[in-house]
Amino acid sequence: MAALAPLPPLPAQFKSIQHHLRTAQEHDKRDPVVAYYCRLYAMQTGMKIDSKTPECRKFLSKLMDQLEALKKQLGDNEAITQEIVGCAHLENYALKMFLYADNEDRAGRFHKNMIKSFYTASLLIDVITVFGELTDENVKHRKYARWKATYIHNCLKNGETPQAGPVGIEEDNDVEENEDAGAASLPTQPTQPSSSSTYDPSNMPSGNYTGIQIPPGAHAPANTPAEVPHSTGVASNTIQPTQQTIPAIDPALFNTISQGDIRLTPEDFARAQKYCKYAGSALQYEDVSTAVQNLQKALKLLTTGRE
Questions:
Q1: Of the four listed, 108, 167, 185, 264, which is most buried by Cβ atoms within 10 Å?
Q2: pTM of the full predicted structure?
Q3: What is the pLDDT of residue 285?
Q4: What topology in the membrane does the UniProt record assign (predicted)?
Q5: Are 104 and 228 in contact (CB under 8 A)?
């Protein structure tokens, strides 16, 4: 991807979007779609903050130039041309980061890369708001991830051992107020964790994270955005297909004719659409199991009115 023209110095008024812009820069090569939407979020937020001051107008103008250049480069990408695909891409990417950091946390492996993954996940959930209001699940994920990043960072800074796994979040604890602490002293590019930090999606715990609901289709693909390295071995030029366990399909779903007395609500259609969205995004990561599970859930909902 062609390099983007640099931005002028960030006006003080835009301090709240500096980490989103940094995240965009970090993803220019790794995931241009994520980089595009991070800049779009920064643009929309900046316009609301100050679009009249000369330095702010100049900055936003240059940021708009970057957005137009990215959109031109990514013009044939469905995640840019179709909002539902773009939203699913961002949600899955943010959740993949969240799950990597959460697994490291639960295993008691505290390091800067894990802290950065928690914090970046929270920033990407901010970015999802370019598509509309966040779901309750995303709001809880964002609060927990940002709080965890701040908590673990402060513990390590003070020479204390963080408590692994979910611990109660005080409802009156203003996580947003401390967001800089979660990003302080973090590498501008993620460091490579040790081999003991390799993420295995098969070990993903089910259930809640202090009330955080993991949405359907949330199984993380094998490679996380934190770039956890594969185990080293003999180099091979042949790409081996990944063996996957396909879930059993309910035979009743082969009869796709819905019963005449089924009355689907707008909420039912929205949930079915979300299952299909997660399935499509899972296929982008070649996660067949998650795709099949979510398509089954959508089909069951649409044909029976029940999940």
A1: 264
A2: 0.62
A3: 56
A4: Peripheral membrane protein
A5: no
